Amino acid sequence: MAIGNELNITDELFEIFKERARDTLKSIKEPDAEKVHKASRESSMELIKLDVSRTFPHLCIFQKGGPYHNMLHSILGAYACYRPDVGYVQGMSFIAAVFLLNLEPPNAFLCFSNLMNKPCQMAFFRLDQTIMQAYFATFEEYFQDNLPQLFVHFEELEVTPDLYIIDWMYTLYSKSLPLDVACRVWDVFFRDGEEFLFRTALGILQLYRNILLEMDFIHIAQFLTKLPETIASGSLFKSIAAIDIHQKKFGHVLASHLTRIQQQQTGGTVTE
């Protein structure tokens, strides 16, 4: 996939929207979590102020007074001004932070903005329910093919993909997995595209299959929300390698589910 720069982001553009974000911040008082809404640029800025200090707290560099606090704030603020139709959504801070750990702020903003513009990320961050349902249905098809026993167990307990996939997608696993493991997932994601994100999800389920089969709904939800901190890169990638999604091309399966869902919504006839 590689991120690229389809949006033609420049250093100058970053500076323009960084200044706009700074001007907006001047008019905002201390954030009140009860009054944070997603509808406006100002509320996005409030949410950013709340979230930046919660980002990778164990690193102690993004918190107030830390060396990366202002840089992370500026990238997220600039993006909220650049894309007010998307704004800031919780989880974005982790993605932007990973870029900042590897790039200077202008390049981090370039990569972050272009990544957010990819179909999968845009669908999830804009909460496009139709496209999200198509991704979930695609995931479940591969889930049933690769892990049929666990798939039945989840179905019986009504454990649906939205209970765990959304959080993983919102942070691209950077919050759910150890940072070094998440970075390795990113490397392959940039090479192979969005299908690897869902293959990773199946790899996680494969790795903990036996444990999950013994759990009830509550414990599964809790476990997948907070994965073991001891998860090892080698073990996870061995499980990912065991997942077969090549018999059916991901793009074709996704397009098929999207067409079916759209036809159902419009009352059309679903054709095989």
Please describe what this structure looks like:
The chain is an all-alpha fold. Helix content is 63%, strand content 0%. The protein has helices at 11-26, 41-52, 69-82, 92-100, 105-116, 119-125, 129-146, 148-157, 165-171, 179-192, 195-207, 209-213, 217-225, 233-241, 250-266. The longest helix is centred in the middle third of the chain and has 18 residues, at 129-146. The relative contact order is 0.10. Mean pLDDT is 91; it is low at 30-39.
Task: Summarize the structure in short.
With 272 residues, the protein is mainly alpha-helical. Helices cover 63% and strands 0% of the residues. The chain has helices spanning 11-26, 41-52, 69-82, 92-100, 105-116, 119-125, 129-146, 148-157, 165-171, 179-192, 195-207, 209-213, 217-225, 233-241, 250-266.
Q: Beta fraction of the residues?
A: under 5%
Provide the residue-averaged pLDDT. Answer: 91
Low-confidence stretches: 30-39
**Distance N to C terminus:** 29 Å
Number of helices: 15
The coarse overall form would be: globular
Radius of gyration: 19 Å
Class by SSE composition: mainly alpha
- Largest β-sheet summary: none
Number of beta strands: 0
* Residues in helices, as a percent range: 55-70%
Element string (H = helix, E = strand): HHHHHHHHHHHHHHH
Sum up the structure in keywords.
272 residues, 0% strand, 15 helices, single chain, mainly alpha
